[in-house]
Amino acid sequence: MPGHKRKYPVRFSPKRIKKMMQKDIEVGRMSMAVPVIISQALEIFLKSLLIKTFLVSQSKLSNTLSVAHMKQCVESEKPFQFLTDVMEQALCQGDGRAMSIWSLYRNNRREVCVQEPVEREQRMELKKMLNSRDDVSSSSCDKFGHSLFSPSKHR
Fold it and tell me: Which stretches make up the Transcription factor CBF/NF-Y/archaeal histone domain (predicted)?
């Protein structure tokens, strides 16, 4: 159908990809499928890069992906070696703005203790206990002795 707009299941906008491609003088006309295919190829490439970088960060026992992890991934994996120049520039620049914003998020991080999962029956009992309480100012502890209203390391 002419004039019928199609939606493609891609993460990157084909319209934006087409605009970027048309900025190049050598690129002429292209069919509608080209930006969609490039979008899918870009998604697959980035997914593989992030998975390999994640594996590098896991091997270093790190919880955060960093530029150093990505650099190590680019240097060790043959398909990504064309990115070595870009990685060198990223390491040299050291975007101070991003670091200052990131530090705001990291300072507010709380410690979380890992407990065994609460069984369904225990959750139902806790809900009944909470619903049956009329007065909030009375003793506010659950059946395990933990405070219900103040943060605790044991929760």
Answer: 13-74
Q: At what angle do helices 33-59 and 67-76 cross, to 10 degrees?
A: 100
Tell me: the pLDDT tens digits for 6-49?
A: 677 788 888 899 999 999 888 888 888 899 999 999 999 999 99
**Domains in the chain: ranges and CATH:** 14-93 (1.10.20.10)
Output the CA–CA distances (angstroms, integers) from residue 53 to 3, 57, 68, 75, 141, in the order listed. Answer: 43, 6, 10, 11, 44
Dihedral (CA of 10, 16, 20, 21) sign: positive
Q: Please, which residues bridge with residue 141 across strands?
A: 147
Instruction: Note if the pTM is more than 0.90.
Output: no
* Tokens 């990115």 sit on residue: 83
CA distance 84 to 73: 10
The DSSP annotation for 108-124 comes to: TPPP----PPPPHHHHH
**Residues 42, 50: Cα–Cα separation, whole Å:** 12
CB 35 within 8 A of CB 18: yes
CA angle 128, 130, 131 (to 5 degrees): 65
